[in-house]
Amino acid sequence: MKSSFVRGDCLQILRTIPKKFPVPDFRYEWEIKKFCLENSCLYFCTVSSFAKLHEVKTQWEVLVIDEAAQLKECESTIPLQLPGHHLTILIGDEQQLPVMVKSKRLVLLGQKKELLNVQHREHPSMSLFPNWVFYENQILDGPNVKERRHERSFLQGNMFSSYSFINVAHGKEEFDNSQSLKNMVKVAVASEIVASLFKESVCSNKKVKVGIISPYKAQVYAIGEKVKNYNADSNNDFSISVHSVDGF
């Protein structure tokens, strides 16, 4: 029933289009690209790629630079030179990723800085620690993370609640051939948790995606080898991703 209404709306729009309307005659690929860019209202690219847009005849109004704290000043000036825009918004958080270049120029110019102080991702038990340590308790929890359905626990026991620390006391770090650290006791612990999650996923028919993060390449490889059989299983409802912090 819904599709018939959509089809009717589409037909109505098509009837309003003139039988004849001009279509640009393109001969080269760059002409197509230029036409698309000159008739677009939103552009997504890296700051360095903005250099290619200097030849496009269009006016810019608002420029938003994400992860601005990761840019060198010379990089940020590339999009700033484009004509027409009158508002620039720099987005970044030096508490999440360390700044590459520390500059006080914008601060000295008196530019206003806004803190986005409501988080909508983490359960309050998870946001408590970073909020206290890094943000001086200025971050508020959004209403969605306070709801009961946001609190998920796939396994029984307090250790498997929304957020917990597990102390692996008897592990020992050792170097592999590439001089990267690994800890095989922690590998075993991670593997046992994955095995329990897989068993619960099969019994409850729940779709579970597991992410395992380690700062060391050797540890990533060791854990990946230990749990690879679960990814190879025919059960598509269970998947594992093992990466370094940057890899995620």
**What class do helices, strands and sheet pairing give?**
alpha/beta
Number of helices: 8
Whole-angstrom Rg: 26 Å
Q: Any low-confidence stretches, pLDDT <50, length ≥5?
A: none
Question: What series of H and E elements makes up the topology?
Answer: HHEHEHEHEHEEHEHE
- Read across the widest sheet, the strand sequence of neighbours is 1-2
Share of helix among residues? Answer: 25-40%
SS strand fraction: 5-15%
Mean pLDDT, nearest integer?
Answer: 83
Summarize the main sheet.
2 strands, parallel
How many strands appear in the DSSP assignment? 8
Shape, per Cα inertia axes:
extended
Distance between the termini: 42 Å
Protein name: DNA2/NAM7 helicase-like C-terminal domain-containing protein
InterPro entries: DNA2/NAM7-like, DNA2/NAM7-like_C, P-loop_NTPase, SF1_C_Upf1
Organism: Quercus rubra (Northern red oak)
Domain DNA2/NAM7 helicase-like C-terminal: 104-248
Outline the structure in words.
This protein has helices at residues 2-15, 29-38, 73-80, 105-108, 124-134, 143-146, 184-204, 217-231, and strands at residues 62-65, 87-90, 118-119, 140-141, 174-175, 181-182, 208-213, 238-243. Among the domains are: 117-151, no CATH class; 154-248, no CATH class. The protein has 8 helices and 8 strands, in the order ααβαβαβαβαββαβαβ. It starts with a helix and ends in a 5-residue tail after the last strand. It is α/β, with parallel strands linked by helices. InterPro entries: DNA2/NAM7-like, DNA2/NAM7-like_C, P-loop_NTPase, SF1_C_Upf1. This is DNA2/NAM7 helicase-like C-terminal domain-containing protein. Residues 104-248 form the DNA2/NAM7 helicase-like C-terminal domain.
